[in-house]
Write a structure and sequence with these properties.
Largest sheet: 7 strands, parallel
Strand content: 15-25%
Radius of gyration: 25 Å
CATH topology of the largest domain: Rossmann fold
Strand order of the largest sheet: 10-11-9-12-13-8-14
CATH superfamily of the largest domain: P-loop containing nucleotide triphosphate hydrolases
Oligomer: single chain
CATH architecture of the largest domain: 3-Layer(aba) Sandwich
Number of helices: 21
Number of strands: 21
CATH class of the largest domain: Alpha Beta
Distance between the termini: 67 Å
Structural class: alpha/beta
Shape: globular
Number of domains: 3
Length: 504
């Protein structure tokens, strides 16, 4: 039976908050205030109108972050509870529990922290914004560290991990690092090794059926490999890192975080958020407040990242085709685009003409990726290396391809958006080609991030955004609408861009 989440009438304007555990807060208040809290923490899910449950009238399209029956809410939403109480002039009592106080943080001695970092003997100097992120995260205990691709998030995680394993680890709790793909497990492991850490002795990797049992203190795992593990398995962890945490909106990932009830330290890292308030609050509930570490523009201005130029190439389809698409559905348009021979020939010839390492990103393996790869392979010179990557490519092969590309000067990689758009570091990339349309803010920015690391020759990165104009009169086709969304992203991020038109 659930504990009542209301208090006596003479205290009806008081909200009491305590930690039920490190994942969940317990809120006790009058029934009417609980109803207000439920409404305050209710939000429409993006795209809810198109979801079957809403269309069938079995769901109102809202997600509710406060459980009115139990009085439970994710611990990271504590600041929002404070804001709620202050805006309505309710008194709030913050109570201690065996898990501490919801307001609790650490006092950080910057000089001592700096000496600690120096003692790690990193192969390079930690940047100021990285050091600030480490200090802020440890001080807050819970935080989303928002930092763009190429800013060195793995180093931030590493330094925080080392501090938590030594300076603050009285209970000898272990550390869990959750990443979305097997490739990122290997990349994180190798990054730690490159920083001088004895990963063989201290780090254990879990993916593809690898043993879940280990005495090592740091576990790096994909979320798919562990989300079904029993709650008891997660009790060993005092710290959880969610790398690429924008993916933690899904139920499985939320389940992992809620099982980590003993994890006092909870950090999410990502380069991009999709801008949806609902998603951001879900993430803040799991990890804490957002801290913007730095920006792409700042890193480009101080020469940490490569400059980016965007060339928007609008392919104008013939009049007859544009007329026919007046009533076509989205999937019909996609089918037409990916199977269009002249379009694929254009992408092929463009890729062959480009100088430097080129990454072509596609969305459909059999219908689009393989045909483009085959066309390029048939025309490319024998001296030029070409690679194909899809979801079926083993993680070890992806890592091998990435390592090879970094040593090349004129390679071509045809890769699916799902494999090379997120998290994969390619340090010597000159060109990116968007072969498939997308309006996802996260996917667009993650894909761009693949090409922002400084190249060996110091060249700027060029992005070729392929856009299909199938509009007719006042009607815009989906490809143009999605391109408009990407254009807004480019403008907001202050990327330089030019538009060109080509008839096909």
């Amino acid at each position: 039976m659930a504990t009542p989440n209301y208090i006596e009438h003479n205290q009806m304007e008081t909200i009491r908050v305590r930690k039920l555990n490190h994942a969940i807060l317990k809120v006790e208040c009058d029934r009417s205030i609980a109803a207000e809290l439920r409404e305050f923490f209710s939000f429409y899910v993006p795209g809810y109108k198109f979801m079957p449950a809403y269309r069938n009238r079995i769901w109102d399209g809202k997600i509710r972050l406060f459980n009115q029956t139990t009085g439970e809410i994710s611990s990271g939403l504590f600041p929002q509870i404070i804001s709620f109480a202050e805006s309505r002039e309710y008194k709030i009592d913050i109570e201690d529990s065996e898990y501490g106080n919801p307001n609790e943080g650490n006092q950080i001695n910057v000089d001592f922290m700096m000496k600690f970092v120096e003692a790690l003997k990193l192969p390079f100097k930690i940047r100021d914004y990285q050091f600030d992120a480490v200090c802020t995260g440890i001080q807050r205990k819970n935080a989303i560290l928002l930092s763009p691709t190429g800013s060195g998030k793995s180093l931030i995680i590493y330094v925080m991990m080392r501090w938590l394993l030594s300076a603050l680890d009285k209970a000898k709790k272990d550390i869990l690092i959750v990443v979305p793909t097997t490739s990122l497990v290997e990349q994180m492991y190798n990054d730690f090794k490159s920083y001088g850490y004895n990963v063989d002795s201290h780090c254990h990797r879990i993916y593809s059926g690898k043993d879940k049992n280990t005495f090592k203190r740091v576990i790096i795992s994909t979320w798919q490999s562990i989300y079904k593990f029993p709650k008891e398995w997660f009790e060993r962890f005092g710290t959880v890192f969610g790398d690429e945490c924008h993916g933690f909106k899904s139920k499985s990932l939320t389940t992992i975080m809620n099982k980590c009830t003993e994890a006092e330290y909870r950090f999410g890292t990502t380069g991009t958020l999709d801008g949806a308030l609902t998603h951001e609050l879900v993430l803040q509930g799991l990890f804490g407040k957002i801290y913007r570490v730095t920006s792409t523009r700042a890193l480009q201005d101080n020469d940490t990242l490569a400059k980016l130029s965007i060339r928007r190439i609008i392919l104008e389809h013939d009049e007859k085709t544009r007329k026919e698409f007046g009533k076509q559905k989205y999937q019909d348009e996609i089918k037409h685009i990916v199977e269009h021979k002249k379009r694929n020939s254009f992408i092929t010839n463009l890729s062959l003409d480009l100088k430097g390492n080129t990454l072509i990103l596609y969305n459909y393996v059999e219908k689009h990726g393989k045909p483009i790869y085959d066309m390029i392979k048939n025309k490319v010179s024998e001296s030029r290396k070409i690679f194909f990557v899809s979801g079926n490519t083993p993680a070890t092969d992806r890592e091998a391809i990435r390592a090879i590309v970094e040593k090349q000067k004129d390679s071509i990689t045809v890769a699916s958006l799902g494999t090379f758009s997120t998290g994969i570091n390619i340090r010597n990339l000159h060109n990116i080609v968007f072969a498939s349309p997308s309006k996802s803010q996260i996917r667009v920015l993650q894909s761009i991030g693949r090409g922002l690391r400084k190249t060996d020759d110091g060249r700027d990165t060029i992005l070729y955004d392929i856009i299909d104009d199938l509009s007719w009169k006042s009607r815009k086709n989906y490809g143009i609408l999605h391109a408009d969304e990407r254009l807004r992203i480019y403008g907001r991020e202050k990327f330089n861009h030019k538009t060109y038109r080509v008839k096909i």
